[in-house]
Design brief:
Distance between the termini: 34 Å
Structural class: alpha/beta
Helix content: 25-40%
Radius of gyration: 19 Å
Bound molecules: 2'-monophosphoadenosine-5'-diphosphate
Low-confidence stretches: none
Order of helices and strands: EHEHEHEHEEHEHEHEEEHEHH
Number of helices: 10
Length: 272
């Protein structure tokens, strides 16, 4: 009667979630099974229904391209999931209803705090205005930065996010308007790194103590992190820690025990 968990996505072969959750289970002495499942593009709702029809099916992680479908499918949503408009986490509650949450933003924030970075009182620049950025904005705003500027190629998408989040410290801009402005924390939430591209950042956007974070990760520093190094960023980090910390938050919500994310980040880093 082992409790069952899984990550649903398409593609899914690359997912490290089963390794991460197996490590968390080992660390905390929890008995559970966590698998990765390739879900047909037109079969998401059926797959979720079938998973939870098994009484041992306790929770799912949801990845690309199903995060918005999952948002629309669950019975209940946490406040941070509601505002994110997409979820990466489902838990079957005691009443049998499905609860959706988004642990991406808290995962990113926790990773930064684990790294010893400060967000409170900082001038934050976030690059991109797609689903990835929308998913992390609320937990970022909750850290009380001085300002959060969203720069995007398509300005209207950044403006939509500003409208949606209704925070006085949030503003939208084009890359060309960034010249002459300085930031303490720059977060790359674009998919540009996937293609080896760099968003068109002007020089001198980094303060002398600036930290740069890429939500993507890889064996080598991303193009954005190389740019950060060339521009004398004080600290850089990629999104491997975000991945592990969003999983740690999910594990905690499902199991009620907090795993140690840092040791799992170190372990995964060696295997990249
Ligand atoms: P995701 O769900 O990963 O956020 P998305 O919703 O397709 O994916 O958003 C991708 C983001 O990366 C967008 O902000 C996109 O900018 P546009 O809205 O202008 O398209 C941004 N992006 C992708 N490639 C980029 C590039 N080469 N330079 C700058 N921004 C890029």
């Amino acid at each position: 009667m082992t409790d069952l968990y899984a990550v649903f996505g398409n593609p899914i072969a690359q997912s490290k979630s089963p390794i991460i959750h197996a490590e968390f289970a080992k660390q905390t002495g929890q008995e559970l099974q966590y698998t990765k499942e390739l879900i047909p593009l037109d079969g998401f709702a059926d797959a979720v229904k079938s998973f939870f029809s098994n009484p041992n099916g306790k929770g799912l992680n949801i990845t690309v391209p199903f995060k918005v479908d999952a948002f629309n499918l669950v019975d209940d949503l946490t406040p941070r999931a509601k505002i994110a408009g997409a979820i990466n986490f489902i838990a079957k509650q005691v009443n049998g209803k499905l609860l959706g949450d988004n642990t991406d933003g808290i995962g990113m924030v926790k990773d930064m705090l684990n790294l010893g970075w400060t967000i409170k009182g900082k001038r934050v620049l976030i690059l991109g205005a797609g689903g990835a950025v929308r998913g992390v904005l609320q937990p970022l705003l909750d850290q009380d930065p001085t300002s959060v500027t969203i720069a995007n190629r398509t300005l209207s998408k950044a403006e939509e996010l500003v409208q949606h989040f209704q925070s006085e410290i949030l503003r939208a801009t084009e890359y060309s308007q960034l010249a002459g402005h300085e930031f303490d924390l720059i977060i790359n939430g674009t998919s540009a790194s996937l293609h080896g591209d760099l968003p068109p950042l002007p020089e001198k956007t980094l303060s002398s103590t600036a930290c740069c974070y890429d939500m993507m990760y890889g064996a080598e520093p991303t193009v954005f992190l190389k740019w950060a190094q060339q521009n004398n960023a004080a600290q850089i980090a990629d999104g491997l820690g975000m991945l592990v910390n969003q999983a740690a938050e999910a594990f905690y919500l499902w199991r009620g025990v907090k795993p140690d994310a840092t040791v799992v980040v170190t372990m995964l880093r060696k295997s990249l």
